[in-house]
């Protein structure tokens, strides 16, 4: 297991290096002069040169890259001209809402998805299986922004139960925070719940067909015991790999959700940075989000190795 | 019974797959024959009649510029189809080629391709698509390329897995022993045996791609206005939700119907082409 994890660790480092190169290249691939693109063409040439120099754009490419990475590792991600603050403080301010919403919705989708998946597999062919399966199919096909609009229409405009926008930290005002988070978390979880339901169902059905389940049945074990002790445990192993992707997808989806519910989080930073051509924020943002995904994947690999003896004892 | 007949019998065994195909064909007709099916010019503004609810004149009402929402949804199917199908073809072809090379050659080729794939997969899909839009621009062909490129990694990974299952089989060894070049062995012997799962996954991805394009245009990074894109329509309508809900909500129904139809059809195709996977999802 140690060797497997060490290998994955070095692969993760390698992946992060590749991502940093890709993100770094962005500024040089996009057509046009990066400084004019960021600040507009009506700035004075002297100011242009000054910014150009302060961003290190006049250095050789390789030197630029190492300077940027070196600063990034030390937590200095540069100054964003669009947001008018250091990218590190920007991230520190805007990441927490996204993370809270992302983690909450990841938890909700895993719990409900596994639950529904197990129910549909155990009750295969029964009405509840059909209903949940149809709902899961619709859930996968529903655009989350449309769901957000629908929920706002029903719960905010018609029933006037929930606020249609904003984000408050739970430790500031718990009640308001919960009310504001219901709809965003629901929207961000629907896709996850649906795909977990489908995956868990198929994984469970595969396991239920295995010989060791038949053996357990022939031993006279109760069906609930078989499901709990033998089926679920084995069915969950392939699902684990999916969990690593959930947080990535939630954070990606946060761009849409944050726009729909007017939340100033990391997703909206990325969208704004792109439309304002703020490369400084963009580069660091991409690397930062990828870093989170990679750490999640690594944690999942550890869990995977722990859960599956075939890997643990390798 | 001929193979073709057996295939179609298996494909339409579940009635819902036939229904899905009908829905897809309906939307395809809308896309191809938009001017015939639409009741109004999708770009014609009527500023005296903005944000009206459904009526006999405007079946789904009008938008904030007085344009007919129904006609714009019909025209929007063109964007959905173009992006959905061509992007999947782009990513399918590129992904298959990369996965084939990675799986067949192994070694450093595999390492390079696999790490690149994993790196791209670590970036949240929407962020990746947004970054690519910044590079390629927002015209319809470029948007299709962007959607295609951003899902290359998933296909490459899938194809690599497929190749690994057949790479060490006897017929591959036989082809090599006959003195066939690597290229001939890959294209003539390995590719055909990995193709049907790839076709299944490609079909299943069309729906997801249409969804992703809608999401991108909701964020304002899709095809430039005034083109009618479903996601952008929902976004425009959101601002006027309290006054005219049909404007924001109806384009989403079109997205759900088309995506659902493609997903169900994809599942049906999987069941028909690959009996081993039947009913597993």
Concise structural overview:
Chain A has 314 residues and is mostly helical. Chain A contains 13 helices and two strands; from the N terminus they run H-H-H-H-E-E-H-H-H-H-H-H-H-H-H. In chain B, helix 5 (107-122) runs antiparallel to helix 8.
Describe the secondary-structure layout.
The complex is a heterodimer of chains A (314) and B (281).
Chain A: H1 2-29, H2 34-39, H3 45-54, H4 61-73, E1 79-80, E2 85-86, H5 87-122, H6 127-141, H7 144-158, H8 174-208, H9 211-218, H10 223-260, H11 266-275, H12 279-307, H13 309-312
Antiparallel strand pairs in A: 1-2
Chain B: H1 3-11, H2 15-32, H3 34-37, H4 69-105, H5 107-122, H6 125-136, H7 140-150, H8 152-166, H9 170-177, H10 182-218, H11 230-239, H12 245-273
Helix pairs in contact in B: 1-12, 2-4, 2-12, 4-5, 4-7, 4-8, 4-10, 4-12, 5-8, 6-7, 8-10, 9-10, 10-11, 10-12, 11-12
Radius of gyration of chain B, in angstroms, nearest whole number: 22 Å
CATH evolutionary superfamily of the largest domain in chain A: MetI-like
| Number of E-type strands of chain A | 2
SSE-based structural type of chain A: mainly alpha
Distance between the termini of chain A: 6 Å
Q: What fraction of residues of chain B sit in β-strands? A: under 5%
- Give the SSE string of chain A: HHHHEEHHHHHHHHH
CATH superfamily of chain B: MetI-like
Shape of chain A: globular
CATH architecture of chain B: Orthogonal Bundle
Q: Roughly what percent helix of chain A?
A: over 70%
What fold name stands as the CATH topology of chain B?
MetI-like fold
Oligomer: heterodimer
Would you state the CATH class of the largest domain in chain A? Mainly Alpha
- How many separate domains of chain A? 2
Q: Output the radius of gyration of chain A.
A: 24 Å
């Amino acid at each position: 297991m140690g060797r497997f994890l060490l290998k994955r660790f070095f692969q993760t480092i390698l992946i992060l290096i590749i991502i940093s190169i890709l993100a770094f290249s962005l500024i040089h691939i996009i057509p046009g002069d990066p400084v004019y693109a960021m600040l507009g063409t009506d700035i004075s040439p002297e100011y242009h040169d000054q910014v150009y120099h302060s961003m290190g754009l006049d250095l050789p490419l390789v030197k630029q890259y190492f300077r940027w990475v070196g600063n990034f590792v030390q937590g200095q991600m540069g100054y964003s001209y669009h947001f008018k603050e250091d990218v590190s403080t920007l991230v520190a301010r805007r990441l927490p809402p996204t993370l809270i919403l992302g983690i909450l919705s990841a938890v909700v989708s895993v719990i409900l998805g596994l639950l529904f998946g197990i129910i549909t597999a155990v009750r295969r062919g029964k009405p509840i299986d059909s209903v949940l399966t149809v709902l899961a199919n619709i859930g996968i096909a529903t655009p989350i922004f449309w769901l957000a609009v629908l929920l706002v229409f029903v719960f905010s405009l018609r029933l006037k139960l929930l606020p249609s926008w904003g984000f408050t930290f739970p430790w500031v005002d718990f009640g308001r925070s919960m009310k504001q988070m219901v709809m965003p978390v629901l929207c961000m979880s629907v896709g996850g719940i649906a795909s977990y339901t489908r995956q868990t169902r198929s994984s469970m059905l595969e396991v239920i067909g295995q010989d060791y389940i038949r053996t357990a049945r022939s031993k006279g074990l109760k069906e609930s015991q078989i499901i709990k002790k033998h089926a679920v445990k084995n069915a969950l192993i392939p699902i684990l790999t999916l969990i690593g992707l959930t947080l990535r997808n939630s954070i990606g989806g946060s761009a849409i959700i944050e726009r729909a519910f007017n939340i100033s989080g990391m997703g909206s930073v990325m969208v704004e940075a792109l439309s304002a051509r703020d490369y400084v924020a963009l580069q660091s943002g991409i690397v930062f989000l990828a870093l989170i995904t990679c750490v999640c994947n690594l944690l999942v690999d550890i869990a995977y190795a722990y859960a599956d003896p075939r890997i643990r004892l390798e | 019974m001929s193979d073709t007949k057996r295939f179609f019998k298996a494909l339409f065994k579940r009635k819902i797959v036939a229904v899905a195909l009908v829905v897809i064909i309906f939307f395809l007709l809308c896309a191809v024959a938009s001017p015939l099916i639409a009741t109004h010019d999708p770009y014609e503004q009527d500023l005296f009649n903005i944000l009206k609810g459904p009526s006999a004149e405007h079946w789904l009402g009008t938008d904030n510029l007085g344009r007919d929402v129904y006609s714009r949804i019909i025209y929007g199917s063109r964007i959905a189809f173009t992006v959905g199908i061509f992007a999947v073809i782009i990513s399918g072809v590129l992904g298959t080629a990369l996965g084939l090379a990675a799986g067949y050659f192994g070694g450093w080729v595999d390492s390079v391709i696999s790490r690149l794939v994993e790196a791209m997969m670590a970036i949240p899909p929407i962020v990746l698509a947004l970054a690519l839009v910044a590079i390629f621009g927002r015209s319809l062909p470029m948007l299709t390329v962007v959607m295609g490129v951003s899902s290359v990694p998933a296909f490459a990974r899938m194809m690599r897995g497929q190749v690994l299952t057949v790479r060490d089989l006897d017929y591959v060894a036989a082809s090599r022993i006959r003195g066939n070049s690597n290229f001939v062995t890959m294209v003539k012997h390995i590719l055909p045996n990995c193709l049907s799962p790839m076709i299944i996954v490609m079909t299943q991805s069309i729906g997801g791609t249409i969804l992703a394009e809608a999401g991108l245009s909701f964020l304002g990074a899709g095809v430039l206005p005034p083109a009618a894109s479903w996601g952008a329509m929902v976004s425009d309508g959101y601002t006027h939700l309290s006054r005219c809900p049909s404007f924001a909500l109806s384009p989403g129904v079109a997205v759900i119907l088309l995506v659902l139809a493609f997903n169900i059809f994809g599942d049906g195709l999987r069941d028909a082409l690959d009996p081993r996977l039947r009913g597993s999802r």
